[in-house]
């Protein structure tokens, strides 16, 4: 019965080129050397493969000619089937346990990250369900940039938090040792919670914020005189509001700068606005995602002039760019290309450069991160190049060379991963709560994570 079932298996799709009796003998031989499996599971398949091998070999020996072409076709078919699996295994080998542990020890030694300072936001309200926003501005002293931070209360719908605050923390050199300490230097009253914050990379004294009630502010940080000593509120620094504009689109979910004077605001409904900072702030152009994409925009980065990447709440990642010298046209027409999509909401989009190539790093709520190569504007070439799972991590920051990914973890700790060898390391924290925000300074030396109750955690990365 077993023999018969083997004989009539799909293997026999190759035309027989020898007498039937001989084939019977062949099958019998196989069965003879290989005792039949007790149960018909995986081992049955192995045996079936044996049959293929014996048959092809036998055919080649017996006839050649037309039989030969058949064999080659069968071989090619088999290779086509097996090659992707072999390739897959070679590209993502299963790491050995001890290999992982040694690379972890090495990563901790090579990239030394340690907790540096906790920042209390000093708010009386319960922020245990709230989130934090913080950005790094210009470098002040000892490679340490000025920091702007705020808390955002949990929202059901409309923001009714009319006494929100934006706090400025200025690093000051300690009188002893080569240390700096971040001191609260200024507090700015806000009439509504902020939705997003963004430093102007072309002039890091300037930053923009969008509020829940639909306003966009542009602020300037100024150091009036070089302050000496430690103050709780520094009289020598100032935050000046340069512009404010109200948008009927609601709260901008993301802001980014195209130049020192051009700010792009991205809205959940797929609208993109470019503003010009002149004497006043004016709308330069607007663009709306085509109706075929009926998901909410959750993240955006500017790559260049009329060149953006957007992330959506259903995991979509899209590049939008203008390919021609079109004149001021409202609404704008942009090319749109779908990049490798996530399964969950895109929480983070970051620009980075690897070996001189521009990449956009995207991360979703499940902790799956993709590196998208941006050097191509053609659909096949621009797809995913690296995919890494970061279990239970929803937001990320990355090192200057794109090789290290940092994620805030529970209770103020920080996890980091090296892409080149898969090494993982952790810095223990001493706060309570679940981190949902992280931002790296441009020089890669500082990280801020939050919000843990009412506190942010600053980390220092030894270079
Ligand atoms: Zn609010």
Automatic annotation (TrEMBL):
Keyword line: Cytoplasm, Repeat, WD repeat
Entry annotated with the keyword Repeat: yes
GO biological process, one term: intraciliary transport
MF annotations from Gene Ontology: dynein heavy chain binding; dynein light chain binding
Region Disordered, residue ranges: 28-68
Segments of skewed composition (Polar residues): 40-61
GO cellular component terms, A-Z: ciliary plasm; cytoplasmic dynein complex
Domain of life of the native organism: Eukaryota
InterPro entries assigned to the protein according to its UniProt record, in alphabetical order: Dynein_IC, WD40/YVTN_repeat-like_dom_sf, WD40_repeat_dom_sf
SUPFAM superfamilies documented for this protein: WD40 repeat-like
Protein's UniProt name: Uncharacterized protein
Organism expressing this protein natively: Drosophila willistoni
């Amino acid at each position: 019965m077993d023999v018969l079932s083997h004989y009539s298996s799909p293997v026999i799709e190759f035309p027989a080129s020898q007498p039937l009796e001989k084939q019977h003998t062949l099958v019998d031989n196989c069965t003879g050397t290989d005792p039949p499996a007790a149960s018909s599971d995986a081992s049955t398949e192995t045996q079936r493969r044996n049959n293929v091998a014996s048959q092809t070999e036998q055919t080649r020996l017996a006839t050649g000619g037309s039989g030969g072409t058949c064999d080659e076709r069968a071989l090619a078919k088999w290779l086509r089937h097996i090659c992707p699996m072999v390739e897959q295994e070679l590209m993502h080998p299963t790491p050995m346990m001890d290999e992982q542990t040694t690379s972890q020890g090495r990563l901790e030694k090579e990239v030394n990250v340690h907790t540096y300072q906790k920042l209390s936001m000093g708010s009386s309200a319960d922020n245990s369900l709230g989130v934090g926003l913080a950005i790094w501005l210009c470098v002040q002293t000892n490679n340490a940039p000025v920091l702007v931070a705020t808390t955002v209360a949990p929202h059901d719908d409309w923001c009714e938090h009319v006494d929100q605050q934006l706090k400025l923390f200025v690093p000051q050199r300690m009188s002893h040792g080569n240390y700096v300490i971040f001191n609260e230097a200024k507090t700015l009253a806000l009439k509504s919670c902020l939705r997003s914050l963004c430093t102007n990379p072309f002039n890091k004294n300037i930053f923009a914020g969008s509020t829940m009630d639909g306003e966009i502010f542009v602020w300037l940080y100024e150091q009036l005189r070089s302050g000496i000593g430690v103050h709780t509120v520094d009289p020598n620094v100032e935050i000046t509001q340069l512009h404010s504009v109200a948008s009927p689109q609601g709260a901008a979910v993301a802001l980014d700068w195209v130049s020192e004077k051009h700010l792009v605001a991205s809205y959940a409904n797929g609208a993109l606005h470019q503003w010009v900072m002149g004497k006043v702030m004016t709308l330069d152009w607007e663009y709306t995602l085509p109706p075929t994409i009926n998901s909410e925009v959750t993240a955006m980065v500017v790559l260049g002039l009329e060149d953006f990447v957007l992330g959506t709440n259903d995991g979509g990642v899209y590049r939008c760019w203008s390919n021609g010298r079109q004149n001021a046209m409202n609404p704008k027409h942009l090319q749109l290309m779908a990049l490798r999509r996530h399964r969950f909401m895109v929480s983070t989009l970051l620009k980075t450069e690897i070996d001189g190539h521009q990449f956009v790093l995207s991360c979703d709520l499940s902790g799956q991160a993709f590196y998208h190569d941006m050097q191509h504007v053609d659909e096949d070439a621009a797809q995913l190049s690296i995919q890494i799972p970061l279990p239970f991590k929803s937001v990320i920051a990355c090192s200057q060379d794109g090789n290290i990914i940092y994620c805030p973890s529970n209770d103020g700790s920080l996890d980091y991963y090296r892409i080149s060898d898969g090494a993982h390391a952790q810095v223990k924290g001493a706060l309570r709560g679940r981190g949902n925000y992280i931002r790296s300074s441009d020089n890669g030396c500082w990280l801020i994570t939050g919000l843990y109750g009412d506190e942010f955690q600053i980390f220092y990365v030894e270079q």
